[in-house]
Amino acid sequence: MADTRTRAGDIAHLGHVEMLTDRYDESLDFFTRVYGLKLSGEDADSAYLRAWDDYEHHSLKLTRAETTGVGHIGYRAASPEALDRCVAVIEASGYPVQGWVDGDDGHGPAFRFGDPFGHVFEIYYETRRYEAPPEDRPALKNTASAFTGMPPRRLDHLNLLAQDVSVFRDFMLTCLGSRVTEYIQLDNGRIGGCWFTVNNKTYDLACTEEHGTGHGRLHHVTYATDQREDILRAADIFLQNGVHIETGPHKHAIQGTFFLYVWEPAGNRVELANAGARLILAPDWEPVRWTEADRKKGQAWGLKTIETFHTHGTPPTAED
Amino acid sequence: MADTRTRAGDIAHLGHVEMLTDRYDESLDFFTRVYGLKLSGEDADSAYLRAWDDYEHHSLKLTRAETTGVGHIGYRAASPEALDRCVAVIEASGYPVQGWVDGDDGHGPAFRFGDPFGHVFEIYYETRRYEAPPEDRPALKNTASAFTGMPPRRLDHLNLLAQDVSVFRDFMLTCLGSRVTEYIQLDNGRIGGCWFTVNNKTYDLACTEEHGTGHGRLHHVTYATDQREDILRAADIFLQNGVHIETGPHKHAIQGTFFLYVWEPAGNRVELANAGARLILAPDWEPVRWTEADRKKGQAWGLKTIETFHTHGTPPTAED
Amino acid sequence: MADTRTRAGDIAHLGHVEMLTDRYDESLDFFTRVYGLKLSGEDADSAYLRAWDDYEHHSLKLTRAETTGVGHIGYRAASPEALDRCVAVIEASGYPVQGWVDGDDGHGPAFRFGDPFGHVFEIYYETRRYEAPPEDRPALKNTASAFTGMPPRRLDHLNLLAQDVSVFRDFMLTCLGSRVTEYIQLDNGRIGGCWFTVNNKTYDLACTEEHGTGHGRLHHVTYATDQREDILRAADIFLQNGVHIETGPHKHAIQGTFFLYVWEPAGNRVELANAGARLILAPDWEPVRWTEADRKKGQAWGLKTIETFHTHGTPPTAED
Amino acid sequence: MADTRTRAGDIAHLGHVEMLTDRYDESLDFFTRVYGLKLSGEDADSAYLRAWDDYEHHSLKLTRAETTGVGHIGYRAASPEALDRCVAVIEASGYPVQGWVDGDDGHGPAFRFGDPFGHVFEIYYETRRYEAPPEDRPALKNTASAFTGMPPRRLDHLNLLAQDVSVFRDFMLTCLGSRVTEYIQLDNGRIGGCWFTVNNKTYDLACTEEHGTGHGRLHHVTYATDQREDILRAADIFLQNGVHIETGPHKHAIQGTFFLYVWEPAGNRVELANAGARLILAPDWEPVRWTEADRKKGQAWGLKTIETFHTHGTPPTAED
User: Which CATH architecture has domain A11-140+152-311?
Assistant: First the structure.
């Protein structure tokens, strides 16, 4: 009998995010010079970026556009067979399907589909490993390219906005075989936010409630740092470079992540995060439920969540 | 057709290690007061210990014995069905099988078997989650028990010694469905060391070559810390408490782990380690090969490997 | 001709602060078990506490009282002759003088005097060095006692409230020979806050404006940590122990200090702080002026200063 | 009566070190691109360098030469009067005097003199504060220039070699009014090493015994970092850039400094160090004596001191 849900393990990991910008040059300068990604390549419309230990050609595709937000989200399947199984599940699922696309500079054929809120996903298996040119060869052969000392080590996760998080959750469970590690349950019973993972990371995608009229919006994209100190240092680098620091450094109660949120020049929110040694290893991890009462305590160390964190997403809405 | 090798994903994670000690009281004092584990329970022969964020009842079983070394190594399966599949593979494999045992205070029935070098493994699914008594309840509900500020957050990995690492490697691939992430290939073609994982951790078990007459020996057991700073602080705590610091803090070239090795009072080597944000996410990760020429450069930052690191294991051998 | 102001260098350093508590047992438990000070001794009314590398008998004298706040502030003179010179200056200064007192368990004769706002100061030279008993001997002979792994290394500074910071500034310059390293100048010309030092530390005492009816009040007492990571870890320890975290961890724009403020059980505000490698070495350091426009940017990384930070002091006022 | 020894407090701090290099271009590239200093200016023979929070025009003068080593060492006096007093003491002391020189791009008139081992010192008061051009303005007005994220924050200390450390000690006490904070006393009674300070830093100059035929040699120059993590990160940067890492990161037993030593391209040893919150505040600090027995324990965490640390200095000797 056909699977009605993607199997655990068939999707290996979040591979890349395409971010749209209407200030391409400034955004590219920010990501390369200030935030600390490396440029793998560039074509007419996009720059391909990666952190120093991302093993694929790129983990961020920065694309010129008339507005901001997320272009598409790419997950890598665990094998060609796993990819086929996922595609079969998705085709049978009733979720909107765009079908196979050729891939770009960074990977092979990808199967595109969408969630009910306008976000575009793709899954692929064939990828282009980053091949470091001589000047970018790592000193240690178990890392993907030269150590730069810049904070981001690898792509970590992204956060999308959806009008109904429960509906989004079903999409993630069905199409990507994700499991839920933590979620917010509002007093009215609705799910206010949900954190998903396809592997042992504590989350690779979060979804929180869209309160306004936005559609298919992005809340933020995040890279992981090796240490919390990298984030404290980054805060001073952002300050020095006039970057808008929205909130942090502080520690989230949910997921326990040490965080720092800034807005890149076009307005997309980007984060640096450190989870310490936290992983979800239990195969039967019971999703952690956070209530409104819990949330009233603020972040882990008491910081009140800043108002824009609930309202700012990209692209902006008519209300903005 | 029956599987001849345990499937990737069927074993979820390393669950616990049983360590033998002929100085039980001193070892227990070390692990609880100095190293920073918590006591979950104790019976006539063993103390059950865990780090503050280990979700199971224990990750270290410390057992009174006439000598030192490793009692058994427990891995948790991903599901009851996965456990059955693994058992079938192992029974058919020809590796020495001891069969089902009742489990102890910390988990349900376990299937025991051995590698060709005298190490005893067990796999189990039913487990006893750690239920924190009121005084040990965590402030954040997504952690397993009260934060203590002590360095170890969770069990990370162990390192065994074997006369033939290639033979050990076959055992791990067959019985646990492990994959090799890095290895040392000596100039004579032999495998000098091999690092294994069953999940996205960079390794959960390492095996290095036994040079002497030892049999079934332990090289070390390791807990993970959230930050490298926890390890620097631990070094001062070990110094203050008269613990033998063998080597570190420094960074391994292999796996890039920031490490610190000490000997607990009975002589077993224990480590604190931090991998930063490093994970093995690529489903087709190509094992990294280290040559003798590479190894001559020492550890990542040039530290020469200390002689005892090549010779000291537990239990001691007649040569010691 | 007699000095009209204490000479630079005649006062060596801030020695200790006496803190009053109307919840003595809870405060003592907090300082020893949670905050991480050591108990040097106790008499009928007071506990004598110190951080692990404070070289004197105590740096915090915790005294049973009917309310909270600061009892007295002790500075150590650089020599007996320096002490005499200071006393002569103070006696001639017109500031209220209480005269010589015997000292307590921790030091010899002390000369007591007051500022115009009700705070009591004392200066002394003869001191009682902390003599570690065998169980508290440091592993390294250049530190004062056993390393505990707890965050506070040494007393750093305190912050007092005064109705007129300019008047307080004159007091500090005259009596202690302090220099001003940074200050806040309000748009109306008043000095809103002022940071003082008698040595190369960036400050050992700060004074900020008392907005209400309080008299002789304390804003906070601070210990220094070796690393910022100690403060992040402390935040989790405070969270776990139910301590009220008022604000932080974050970085002050003024002085650039990485900070964390909590309230001990009786309500006195205590801080942990890390200045990194920052020192005031220039003999002609020009005081840094911060304007209201500067202050509107919030703390260094944009955190808005929490309201209680402007209003909460000890003892409470009738308004509280 | 004339002073026979410079008064405590008359010398404010170590100001700059002139380092000689016979590979000027490579050394300059190392210091600016890898080690993380900034270039303040350059003339025909020298580059003027500083860390991001050094308040003077330069703290390192890198000079083209036919060999390596130290050109001169500059200390800044506390005032013009203090400078005059020091000069009088030095002129009367019998130590070799070169007299007043004009100063260079970074400071006013300087009085030059020498120790008995061929090292050239100068003292000066008038200095040129670093005036940051717009592109180097700091985000926080209490720091000297733009934060770069690079490890060195300010010049910390240097280490010279002398055939007789006791004789060197007398020179430092007489001419600079230094005090000794720690020293090594060999079993034969000789002083093997001595650590000096003119302020609250734990040391600004160290002298260790020259074992060979070298004359006026340099052991190393050190910059301070804000955090130990900056040093761990620097180790990876040095590794990536092919810099010779001699030893570390580790912690010295003497002074408790967290250290990392590398050789710049011409062979001069440079260090990055972090002292945490350690300061010498006691006006009557008793110098800490380290014996050969102490030294046999190795560095704080047991690292054996590497052989080249005892033999390598610059310039090289005929034996090298």
Answer: Roll (3.10)
